[in-house]
Amino acid sequence: MQPSEYFILVLFIVLGVFSITASVLNLDWYFQTDGARIFVKRFGRNGARIFYVLLGIALIACGVVGFIYW
């Protein structure tokens, strides 16, 4: 595996941890971005938090699976 591939997999894991952390801590600035507002309008604040926790788990899983099977 090349260094750029390691970087992408680590980036997936870091972004997943960040997404979960922002959702658990219910950070206002995170949920007031344009991208998150769409989910807040559609699912409500708690629904958006659940969505971003699931997204974080999926990103971490993709990064870990990439390290294992790549």
From TrEMBL:
Annotated Pfam families: Imm17
TM stretches of this protein: 6-29, 50-69
Protein name stated in the entry: Immunity 17 family protein
Keywords recorded for this protein, A-Z: Membrane, Transmembrane, Transmembrane helix
Cross-referenced InterPro entries: Imm17
Protein species of origin: Parabacteroides faecalis
